[in-house]
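Run NADH-cytochrome b-5 reductase through structure prediction, thanks.
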Amino acid sequence: MKKGKTYRIEGYAYNGGGNEIDRVEISLNGGDTWLYCVRKLVETTRLSQDTQRYTFGLSPPATKLGLETGQHIQIGFHFKDSLVFRPYTPVRPVLDKEEDGTFDLVVKTYFPDENQPGGTMSNILDCLQEGEEVEVKGPSGAIRYQGHGCFSVDDKTYTFDNVSLILGGSGVTPGYQIIARVLEDKTDKTKLRVIDANKSEDDILLKGELEQLSKEHGNQFEIVHVLSHPGDGWGGLKGHVNEDIIKKHAFEPSDRTVALLCGPPTMIQKAVLPVLQAWGYDEDKNLFGF
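Sure, done. The structure for NADH-cytochrome b-5 reductase is below.
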């Protein structure tokens, strides 16, 4: 193999006894180990008209998904002449005690219409029947939460007292992992402030879970939702994430404060990053993107 070139490996792996293997681990040049495997859909739970929770099962003898908090996986599906992969962050398991041989994805389906073609993978998942399989590879993600304010980012370790999470759309899922991990540990005193941006109230993923955590941990966790196209009954913030919203609802920058971002590129690059940098946040020191 030549350095810098991408190779595709196809086919099936068998052990010496002739049994097919559904899990292959590959480590190139002593780097991170990547897992390629097949996972079966075991349950689908509809959360709203266009959002579902998909539960996938691990194949025995595997009992743990094995992701660190903040990491994600790639879900793939074979077409006749192509393979499509998209990144997703499991919303369960977050804690070791939740490891039961399955994992959950919460996915909003972007259906095709006259204005846009729809989301390729979200529509595939929406049509997936229980018992059918997808391909999985990972883990991915440079930001890993170790607990008690400690983050591992690439090869460096950082410790913070305060965490601001500015999230948009499905970008709430990696943030939810960190929120749940912090708040489920009574000894973890890290404070959290979240700005979650969406189009409408129906678009807010994990709204019930986040509201419940906010009620139970109001002295440690604050969250505001910003809607660009709110309904008549919406009493929260309206419009788009801007400087006023960020400075009112995020922590001020300091050596003990970090801002973590995940959302649509336009929102992050044009509306969020310039404000945070002008305010005093410094990329690769206390400002990171999932």
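DSSP finds five helices and 18 strands in the chain.
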